[in-house]
Amino acid sequence: MVEKLSRHILVASDGSPNAKRVLAYISELFARRSDFEVTIVSIAPPVPSHLRQVNPALHEVKRWKLVEEIEAKHFQLAQDIVIRAKEFLVSHGFPPSRVHTKALVQRADVARDILFEARMGKYDAVAVGRRGLSRMAASFMGSVSYKLIQSQSEVPVWLIDGQVVNSRYLLAVDLCEDCLKVIDHVGFILAGDSEAEIVLYHVIPSFRPFMAKEEEFFLGEIEELVLKKEEERARAFFQEASKILAEGNFSENQIRVKIKTGSTNVAADIINEAQRGNYGTVALGRRGQGGFKEMILGSTSTKVIFGLMDRAIWVVA
């Protein structure tokens, strides 16, 4: 039975306030779950490249001694970070046996090292602070977070931000086959959680904003018919989605379907629904219906990720 399988999340931490929000989110939602494990990883930065090269101004013995001292210091800092993070999770309800730690030395860049560990460890998701790891922070969003969601990895990425933590989950999906991966992921992670409230949300856009004035007279006449067929297709899709979620032993009143028609801005409608409904977590796919593989992050997903603050966003490949 799916509910008996263990869920294992890789939490990337650098000891920053953003990283602590990730720990708070994980502990609030999953500490009481006996089928949930966490591995905390911290990436120790490498020795500066100029010290890796022969330097005529620096004696070789002294150079290597300095390299070893810096490596040891960086690794110890990474170890201290994961130890403190584990102490936080344990103090907030996680049994020590379900919290593991790893301190790793940076080999490529931080995002690639995290994804490599995620693939090798076969984790169910990677959780990271929305604004990224402090050492790699960027002006718009932490570059580590951005690289993680832009990667072609199949590992879902959880971007954690803000203080809104509750058991309300908004699954923003269109009718593409890849969207079933979003439902599968959420259903697997939350299976058996009697407190979870799940809303399957689909937005059907209006044709009118894209019509020229002289075309609206003709195409506007069929818009109602097209939207009706789209709505019927959406309801059939969500009936199938509900069957998938039903395998997680959710009760009928835990899962609802919400369809919005006539939208002029799909991303804005998803953001508004998340805020108005006070959802603590929004789950969506990297690419939407008709998305090209070359476009790793779809337009709607990008707008939601950048526009929705103070929530957790699960980005599923």
From TrEMBL:
Signal peptide: none annotated. Pfam families: Usp (PF00582). SUPFAM superfamilies: Adenine nucleotide alpha hydrolases-like (SSF52402). Residues 7-160, 170-305 form the UspA domain. InterPro entries: Rossmann-like_a/b/a_fold (IPR014729), UspA (IPR006016). Belongs to the universal stress protein A family. PANTHER family: STRESS RESPONSE PROTEIN NHAX, USPA DOMAIN PROTEIN. This is Universal stress protein.
